[in-house]
Amino acid sequence: MIEEKENIATKAKAKEQRTMIEIKDLHKTFGGENHVLQGVNLTVNKGEDLVILGRSGSGKSVTIKCIVGLIEPDKGEINVFGENVLHLNKSELNEIRVRIGFLFQSGALYDSMSVRENLAFTLRKHQRDLSKDEVENQVIEALESVGLADAIDKMPSELSGGMQKRIGLARTLILKPEIILYDEPTTGLDTITSREISELILDIKHKRKTTSIIITHDMACAKLTADRIMVLKEGVIHAEGTYEELEKSDDEWVRSFFE
């Protein structure tokens, strides 16, 4: 009996170490009538890239914004690193946020700051004891990881859309996050640049051992990056599987994403 209990405890601990994000029965309504999330349940395991598909307005971006506290859900549970983020105070939530990178659709760079200043500002905000040389070295390292070290003195207005996405990603990577949330990382980019960003997401996963959720409409991005795909419909997870499994789904609505 004791041995059985120990085995159960060991398995539970192993599961906890594997599970990076767990969402249970997540609900969110806007304006009293727009029921965007109506009971979303999902799990993301360590080292996994999960892609979430869905029509516009289906709640994909709302889901990941709830994870980092940018949107407060009406109901549900969100466990990140084993902590229910909805029960954390501001200080505790900030500690979790530092371990999570969030790449916004626009890249969200500060227009009045150079690339160097954008990255340095983020780093100094969270690591105040770094010397000027340490900040500079980490800025260069982050830019090299996205192939844009030569853009260090440029202003955001001088960068193409693809370059802005890369710089936004470098700013995310500078804090060495364990989880990265990508919100439409290839939106507005041409086919070649979109593929480059998708390949960069894969490269980051392999080199930095990150865990990711990728929100996208870009099926080429989904095919290249996804270990697993979930499809949101009417506020719940409607289907789940690999790209190949969902492409051959018996569900005509699910197959429509792959046509």
Automatic annotation (TrEMBL):
Residues 21-259 form the ABC transporter domain. One of its GO terms (molecular function) is ATP binding. InterPro entries: AAA+_ATPase, ABC_transporter-like_ATP-bd, ABC_transporter-like_CS, P-loop_NTPase. Keywords: ATP-binding, Nucleotide-binding, Transport. The keyword Repeat does not apply. This is ATP-binding cassette domain-containing protein. It comes from Flavobacterium hydrocarbonoxydans.
